[in-house]
Every structure is written in C-alpha cells, then in structure tokens.
Amino acid sequence: MTLDVDIRVRVGAFALEVALTARPGEVLAVLGPNGSGKSTLLGAIAGHYADVSGRIRLAGRELNGARPVPIEERRVGLLGQRAMLFPHLSAVENVAFGMRAQGTARAAARDAARELLGEVGLTDLADRRPAELSGGQQQRVAIARALAARPQALLLDEPFSALDAQTAMQARRLVAELRDRSDVPMVLVTHDPVDAVVLADRTAVVHEGRIVQQGETAEVLGHPRSPFVAAVAGVNLLPVTGAADGAAASTDGLRWRGHGDAPAPGEPGTVVFAPAAVRVRKEIAEEASARAAAAGEEAPQGTATAAGPNAWQGTVSTVEPVPGGIRITAAEHPSIAVDLPPSAAVAARIGVGVRLSFSVAADDVSVRRDG
Length: 371
Known about the structure:
The protein is built from 10 helices and 21 strands.
C-alpha cells in the first residue's frame, strides 16, 4: 500500500501546495513550525476539507477524483495530540465502537478490540474507562481504535506532544513496532526532529504551505539546505568558502574540517554540526588570558588561528534553557549555538561574560559544497 499525494488546498487565506509519497510500512515525518500547514495536510488527506485539488492515491484508489471518497470510506486513520476517547465507554468499548458502527456484531467487535488492545500492551486494562488510564495509556487506546478500522494509511498529528517524556518514549516505541510489522504507510506530523530521527527513514520540511526540503532523514537533518531547515532540525549551519589546504573558512574568521563533499578553493559551501556536538573548556580560555596578560598582550578575541580548525574562543553573551540543558552563544560568534547538559554548565559555572574555549570533532562536522 502506497500513499501518493500531490495536492493544493485552500483554507481561508492560507494555501497549501504539497507533493509527497509514503511507502508501504514507512513512516514519513513532516516537520515545520506552527502554522506551516502540517495539520492542514493531514486533514486534506483524511477528507476534512472541500477545497482540495490534485491527486490523493492510496493503495491504488483515487480518493480525490471528480467525486471525492467520503471520509468514512477512505480507510485513513487519523490520530491527534489527544486521544479523544468517549469518557463513558471502557477501553474495549472505545476500540469496538467504530467496528460496531460499521455493522460488526457486538461480540465479534469486542473480541477484535481486545486483540488490538493486546497488541498495544493494554490487555489487563481493557475494562477501564479513560479517566482510570494515564495519558500514555489513553493514547494507546486511541491507536488501537484507529487500527480497528483496518486503515490503509495512518496519519499521526503530533501524537507525542501532550505526553510526558517517559510516556512519549513508550508511545514512540509503539509506533516503531507498528512500522516494523505492518505495510501501512504512516505520515507523522511533528515539530520535534527527535521523532524523525527515531521513527522516519524520510523527512519533509514544510514552510508557509510549501515543502522546502525532503529526502532521507539523515540527509535532511544532517545537512539542511537552508537556515530555515537548519533551525527546524536544530543544528548550526554556517556558510563557508573552500581553502587551498582542504579546510573551509567561514565569514566570522573560523576554519573548518569535516566529512562530506568539501568545496574546492574559492567555492562556496556550508558546514553543519549539532549544538550538542560542541565541547567546552573553561580552563583553556582562562589560561590563555592569563598567559596573554603576563606577556602584556591582549586576550584572544575569538579567532581560530591559534587553535586550528573547528576550534575557537569567545565570551558568553546569551544563556537560555532548552530541553535537556542550556544553550549558549558567544559574543564573537553569535550564529553558533552551543548546548550543554545542566551538570556541565554548573561545573563550568557558565554565565554571561565567562570566557570559554570551544571545539567540535571533525567527525561531527558535515561539510558540503553548494549545489
């Protein structure tokens, strides 16, 4: 079963124009900021919008022809951020509801529902109502309910965003299991690159109703083609020019070495690396400043000449929290974000005005020529 989409959608003043394909048994991640059109894309595939032109083909069926297939006949499962279970029904009754509405006998629907609950690890909780279940358990029931309709495609709209970290991890594992034992294509809308890394072989990035980059997840997130995609992926992207010695020079005076298709001397390119890949050493910067002071010289001001490629010094100018730690930038190189775990930040007494030395291993740097 393959989901092939090439559509144009208008919702009020917003226009979406997207072409993508989700293959059998594949998770295709769709990343982008709020308002970029991710949820509109899923709603159009599911049949929730009337003003949709173009092609939606699923398992050989045309869903958006001259007479669009009604929502209930599309065999497309849609799972949102919240489970949206019927509060007065037990878990097994919630899962059986759709089958009962389609004419399945009560006993058969309940048997099938219990089997599906077993597949998502909730056999012992089948008779509990939603209020007696945790958020993660409710989301598992919702997945079982979506699967009960025997969908030919599954659309996941930020399914982990309302869950705590531990529960989200369990839910991701469940989606991975579904991916590995099913031929159902899945489209996963998310704002978190971690979801794409963990679950998706391919990723598309949407911005203002258009796909700005798509391809293998390792390529899209590992070497974005634009600052926007780099921001979505959560990585540093710096324009560089190839140098005669095989390194690359960025406009802020730093030199870089890494893996990939490096630009030839004088040619433009980019380097990409994760903020968490940057290593920080406070004592080196302090020692360099002390040596400079003893020699009657000025302290180094953020150049990489002495330190070599992939290394620099700087003075912390911003400190802000991010998931799992803090993010800092240096006044001399404000375009480079550096992420530190809380323990490292505390140990180095990180704060505005602190002098630091930074470095990135060449294996953690991707170098690419433009084009």
